[in-house]
Design goal:
Layout: H1 39-69, H2 73-109, H3 113-147, H4 153-168, H5 170-185, H6 190-212, H7 223-246, H8 263-295, H9 299-335, H10 339-366, H11 368-375, H12 379-411, H13 416-439, H14 444-448, H15 451-469
Length: 478
């Protein structure tokens, strides 16, 4: 049987040796299974704030879109084009945060809290460094990037202005993602959720004021939405850094030592995080191509697809939440060299994910017309979208297994396998969808049907991989 053994962290450039043996003080911490009650409670307590946070992030985008839409079609098209590009940036940044989460989780599981704090500091330092090329791209090439979409000049101008602000201030977003990853690795998903909730409130108030010039604020039009989002995230970042300074479960960024960039840590974060980032980007591209396939069915089908995707994105939230919980808790168990506990955590998180996503799938199956009518009263859109939702309903339990088991695998440090399995499964489904629509049946059901073939296979491969490697994996940070 093949084994997976992550490479150990090497000495940093400032001479800090992250492979030093644990100190006597660090050995007094509780074992992961002893923290926070039963395994089921620990999984749920870590997952529900993540689900809530992702929902709030989704709502932040919806509110921005709603406010900008009142400025007209050109404004919403420009902002929408910029946001389409930012989807790829956000997917990459959120996935790279997996690297920080895994390393911190394994250090906490090993009860090497000094090391976990050093890793937290390094994650923040490298998040700033990672932001520099993104800032330069945003400041120099915003017009060219928006121009790729072939939009009219007025739309390109608004989109470029929005993208320039968003990319020029991307360091705040990067720090939020990697800082949130550190806190989740430490077992605290509640703080990122709370700061996101506050950011939503601030964003709604500032976006209205800066878009329309209310309350003495300048009327900036569509670009005011970008500045409002930056300000809201800035406040959230200050609170997140304060929480990390105070410390969470033995992890703190206090003290002057450990801030000099260490390539050994960055290499480990990237080794774990880059495959996850590439996976998210490739899947985003696949869904973009899938939308193009649907577009060949006509405007009504494309509108129905947009509504169905909105519903599906909500059904993904439990899978993502329990997957992130599995990453942190499996990582802690691996760090503590307790593979049996890691298996328990992975299985419990998977069970929760299957239950919640299956319930949502049942709603899609029984009430697809009601869901579609909430967004549109057009009979053709309702009928077309309902057919797609019924197919999506049957994929939910399999996607749940795939999402959560992939998260559990990442907790061991293995992000390569989910990259290959998930991207191949997604691209295969999209390819089969194109063939199905063009040569078999030009319908929404035919477009979604191939996912019923790839989702179970991907879920089974993830399950088998996790249960094979869990007894042989070695902690990354030791």
């Amino acid at each position: 049987m093949a084994t997976y053994t992550p490479e150990p962290v090497v000495e940093g450039t400032d001479g800090t040796d992250l492979t030093l043996p644990v100190t006597a003080n660090e050995l007094h911490g509780p074992l992961p299974m002893q923290q926070g009650g039963s395994p089921r409670r620990r999984v749920f307590n870590l997952a529900w704030p993540v689900i809530s946070e992702n929902f709030l992030e989704t709502m932040l985008g919806i509110v921005d879109t709603w406010l900008v839409a009142s400025l007209g079609a050109v404004a919403i098209a420009g902002v929408g084009t910029a946001i389409q590009f930012m989807f790829f940036v956000i997917a990459a940044l959120s996935a790279v945060s997996v690297g920080s989460s895994v390393l911190v989780a394994q250090a906490i599981g090993a009860r090497t809290f000094t090391r976990a704090s050093q890793l937290a500091k390094q994650s923040l330092v490298w998040s700033v460094i990672f932001s520099i090329p993104l800032i330069l791209i945003g400041l120099v090439a915003s017009e060219q990037l928006i121009g790729i979409f072939g939009v009219e000049p007025a739309v390109q101008k608004i989109g470029a202005e929005y993208l320039r602000v968003t990319m020029g201030t991307v360091v705040v977003l990067t720090l939020l993602f990697l800082g949130g990853g550190v806190l989740r690795g430490a077992g605290d998903s509640r703080t990122p959720m709370l700061v996101t909730a506050l950011a939503n409130v601030i964003n709604v108030i500032l976006a209205y004021g800066l878009i329309f010039g209310a309350w003495g604020l300048p009327a900036m039009g569509a670009v005011g939405s970008a500045w409002a989002t930056f300000a809201a995230r800035g406040v959230a970042l200050i609170l997140l850094l304060y929480a990390m300074w105070r410390g969470r479960n033995g992890v703190s960024i206090r003290g002057a030592d450990g801030w000099w960039p260490q390539w050994g840590v960055a290499r480990q974060v990237l080794k774990i995080g880059v495959p996850a980032a590439v996976e998210q980007v490739l899947i985003s591209v696949a869904f973009l191509i899938f939308t193009i396939v649907i577009a060949h069915l006509g405007t009504m089908a494309l509108a129905a697809q947009r509504i169905a995707m909105n519903a599906m994105s909500l059904s993904f939230l439990p899978g993502f939440g329990f997957g992130i919980a599995a990453t942190a808790l499996v990582g802690q168990s691996i760090g503590a060299r307790q593979p049996d506990e890691a298996r328990v955590m992975g299985n419990i998180a998977t069970l929760w994910g299957v239950i919640w996503m299956s319930l949502l799938g049942l709603i899609f199956l029984l009430f697809p017309e009601a869901i579609m009518r909430f967004f549109s009263s057009d009979p053709e859109i309702v009928a077309t979208g309902s057919a797609g939702l019924r197919i999506i309903a049957f994929t939910q339990p399999f996607w749940a297994v795939g999402f959560v088991q992939a998260g559990a695998l990442r907790g061991t440090g293995d992000t390569q396998y989910p990259l290959w399995v998930n991207t191949i499964a997604m691209w295969a489904a999209v390819g089969l969808s194109a063939l199905s629509v063009w040569y078999v049946d030009s319908s929404m059901a035919a477009a979604w049907a191939p996912f019923l073939l790839t989702a179970p296979l991907a879920a089974w491969l993830m399950w088998r991989r996790f249960h094979r490697v869990i007894t042989t994996v070695a902690p990354t940070v030791l």
